[in-house]
């Protein structure tokens, strides 16, 4: 069975000191949880402090992005081996904000996923349609293009996780309904089966993201193909994220 995974994406929030405080509170709140994987992804500058605060707990720390090369003249970038060396275990790749504001494409996502996996990290690869695409009836076409373009070569890796985050649900308070999430997740899992086989499809964890909150997480997690959440705003507060981790009540 797929172990549920709850990942917090802190985006551009929290200094190192603030991050350590939140992780300390969170680790106390989730100390009694044994059956859910918990990941927090702070900004690069807070990774070391977060790792220190999480040491010996069940909270894994991840980055929000990384470059595809292992080193080089790429001012401002951070490479996968640097993250692995620091103690990170995960990296998010292809978040819609990176696609929207920083020119991320399916081709760069593909290269980044390769780098993340090659350096022993778990990749949380994101995809999802915009409101315009959904309203034009293109949701499944867009998901197929993103999955094939960014992830097809990597679907047999046990360290790949996919996060379906409809862009219209991110930071808007509008969540995909459980049925909408299930429809997208089933479609994606079916595609994975077609591209990489039934075993890869059955193993792949598909997270749901976009305004996941303590009061809607249980209904989303009740869907058979929803294996966890990628949580933005509601992961910034330890009590709120702990309630999401404890979605079973
Ligand atoms: P919110 O939970 O704030 O909508 O953000 C979702 C997200 O983008 C997580 O990666």
Short description:
This protein has one domain (5-245): Alpha-Beta Barrel (TIM Barrel), CATH 3.20.20.70.
Report on this model:
The protein has 249 residues and is of the alpha/beta class. The chain is built from 11 helices and 8 strands. The chain has helices at 16-29, 47-54, 80-86, 96-101, 106-118, 131-135, 139-151, 178-196, 198-203, 217-221, 238-245; strands at residues 5-9, 37-41, 59-63, 90-93, 122-127, 160-164, 205-209, 228-231. An 8-stranded parallel beta barrel has the order 1-2-3-4-5-6-7-8, surrounded by 6 helices. Helix 3 (80-86) links the parallel strand 3 and strand 4. Helix 1 (16-29) packs parallel to helix 2, helix 5 packs across helix 7 and helix 7 packs across helix 8. It is globular, with a radius of gyration of 17 Å. The relative contact order is 0.15.
Topology (elements, then pairings):
Elements (H helix, E strand, L loop, with lengths): L4 E5 L6 H14 L7 E5 L5 H8 L4 E5 L16 H7 L3 E4 L2 H6 L4 H13 L3 E6 L3 H5 L3 H13 L8 E5 L13 H19 L1 H6 L1 E5 L7 H5 L6 E4 L6 H8 L4
Parallel strand pairs: 1-2, 1-8, 2-3, 3-4, 4-5, 5-6, 6-7, 7-8
Give a quick set of tags describing it.
binds 1,3-dihydroxyacetonephosphate, 11 helices, alpha/beta, 249 residues, 8-stranded parallel β-barrel, TIM Barrel
